[in-house]
Amino acid sequence: MDTRVLLVSHAATAAMRQGRFPADDPLDARGIAQARAWRERMPSLGAAIALSSPAACARETAEALGFAVQVTPELADMNYGEWCGRRLAELAEDVPHELAAWSRNPDAPPQGGESFAQVLVRVGGWLDALDETASVVAITHAPVIRAALLHALNAPAVSFAHIEIAPLSVVEIRRSARGWAWWPAQS
Is the pTM higher than 0.85? Predict the structure, then answer.
């Protein structure tokens, strides 16, 4: 049996709608309503194990989707360091060169934070350590899902800038004897 991992991005937060970097933001009423509405029309995800990032928005999304989850530190969002809670537009004025480097270079961390390359190593290690017969639903963040997808495809880290993950998106990856592969999520 293959390892099957369904990665679900958490519901939208007020910080996302305001163009701010996350700072362990909880879901607001709008995000909870979106997750509950999505639950009504979501396909059966049927996994044996449900996991979540430690972040409030991921745990609350999991709850709204009806999952009792185990918090998994490897599913944590990228550490945005000193950029946590700050608006993207503000950073574009204050530190334009650092922001530009971060948005294009997977090795460039936000000030005092974690680079995408570091997230890729963390997530790849977690994926490779999963039981070979595991079936997992993981509620997490867009950078973590990007990292999992790039790891599965053995794609270069610089490709992170070309992947968009919307709130409540589902990405499925599977590991077989051939290694990891991306699968279209069933709808």
Answer: yes
